[in-house]
Design a protein that fits this description.
50% helix, 3 helices, single chain, mainly alpha, 66 residues
Length: 66
């Protein structure tokens, strides 16, 4: 088994374990969390790719705001 596959399985198992209970709650909106995430990258570390910055994609947004 590849090292990455082992790592992925370990992360998945831990996430399932942690998700059994509420990890945390907040009254901050998803948009505010998303804006904070995007503004947290130091200058020059989130370059523009085509139209958006590298980390401003649907995949990243769904992961950080679910």
């Amino acid at each position: 088994m590849s090292e990455f596959k082992s790592f992925k399985q370990a992360v998945d198992a831990q996430l399932v374990l942690m998700s059994k209970d509420t990890l945390f709650t907040t009254d901050v909106s998803k948009d505010e969390i998303w804006d904070t995430y995007l503004s947290s990258f130091p200058e020059g570390t989130n370059p523009t790719f085509r139209e958006r910055t590298e980390h401003d994609c649907t995949c990243c947004k769904q992961f950080s705001c679910t």
